[in-house]
Amino acid sequence: MRDLALLPKAHLHLHFTGSMRPGTLAELAAAHRVRLPSALLDDDPLHVPADERGWFRFQRLYDAARACVRGEADMRRIVAEAVADDAAEGSGRLEMQVDPTSYAPFVGGITPALEIVLDAAREAGARHGVSVGVVVAASRMRHPLEARTLARLAARYAGDGQGEVVGFGLSNDERRGETAAFAPAFAIARRAGLASVPHGGELLGPGHVEDVLGHLHPDRLGHGVRAGEDPRVLERVVASGVALEVCPASNVSLGVYDDARHVPLRALVAAGATVALGADDPLLFRSRLLAQYETARTVHGFSDDELAGLARASIRASRASADVRARLLAGVDAWLATPERVPTA
Ligand SMILES: [Zn+2]
Predict the structure, then answer these.
(1) Of the chain's two ends, which shows fewer C-beta atoms within 10 Å, N or C?
(2) Distance CA 328, CA 82 (A)
(3) What's the confidence (pLDDT) of residue 345?
(4) Is the pLDDT of residue 217 over 90?
(5) How far apart are CA 35 and CA 117, in angstroms?
(6) How many whole angstroms from 15 Cα to the centroid of ligand 1?
(7) Residue 316 is inside which H or E element, if any?
(8) pLDDT for 255 beyond 70
(9) Each residue of 72-95: b (16+ CB within 10 Å) or e?
């Protein structure tokens, strides 16, 4: 068994607010005199049913955490710590999602909000030796015209260099909003060369995956785990080369599967899908990137060869520059070439 923290990998599904360390949230809440719900302060991962009530509870906690982020210093700290934590877990490439709308009121608009995140990403990336890209994500809960505004903003900062925008996403409750209404925003992003990385197929089944495939032409799907419930849909995902950002801890916390054993990780990989493991919202799920790889090893029985395969898939599905991808892929080969550690009793 080789050390998974040393396996180079790319982290393609991590939300800005959801990346926060619990201790940081507590400090920000104290500094801004915000009273946090106790569920955000205890050590237990969130566990809700996969229905509207469960989502509402998740959203309420998420909003409470977001309300503690009140300006540039807080924003910079969150990015810096997310990059540091990723680096410690062997991530050489992080693509972090942010909806700048939420922080705009504190810093004078969505443009400065995004620029602060990009600048902090450049700084932290350089300090920790992590290549960092940003995904601008619109929300299904808001008007599709707002998504277009965000897509235009994202397009202005497009690039594969350190601290540039690499993709455009769509998040929040899959049951809300009409997927087709967001197509024009994704078209703007695509024309600017951005990857299309909407959420889909976590809370809703294969029908939703088809809806997203048809209207938003994703390069990657946030989650997409439930595509496997219809072999025809999974085949379409595989044939079109759409990568799945699979976040096992998130699936269990949000009640999509009652146990990590039931996350169809093996079935998806066996069907030929490109799977990139991600942490989604470690603040609420109390589980970071490395833990997802550990789940693949301990719960799903992935061998070191197979774990290296997952890492390679994440790197190839990333929007890192060709030289960064080549360097990380070489690192995966080097990891596999190291002798296995014999477990000590
Ligand atoms: Zn997500």
Answers:
(1) C
(2) 19
(3) 54
(4) yes
(5) 26
(6) 6
(7) helix 304-316
(8) yes
(9) bebbbbbbbbbbebbbebbbbbbb
| CA 12 to ligand 1 center in whole angstroms | 10
**Which stretch of DSSP H or E encloses residue 78?**
helix 72-88
CA 245–ligand 1 middle distance (angstroms): 9
Q: How far is the CA of 223 from the centre of ligand 1 (A)?
A: 7
Query: Could you say which of 89, 95, 174, 202 is catalytic?
Result: 202
> In this structure, how many other beta carbons lie within 10 angstroms of the beta carbon of residue 42?
10
**What CATH architecture is 4-336?**
Alpha-Beta Barrel (3.20)
Instruction: Tell me the C-alpha distance between 319 and 164, whole Å.
Output: 10
340 is catalytic: no
Report the SS3 class of residue 200.
strand
Do the Cβ atoms of 137 and 102 come closer than 8 Å?
no
Strand order in the sheet with 195-196: 9-15, 91-98, 131-139, 164-171, 195-196
Q: Token pair 């601290």 is at which residue?
A: 163
Higher-pLDDT residue of 177, 20: 20
**pLDDT tens-digit series, residues 109-126:** 999 999 999 999 999 999
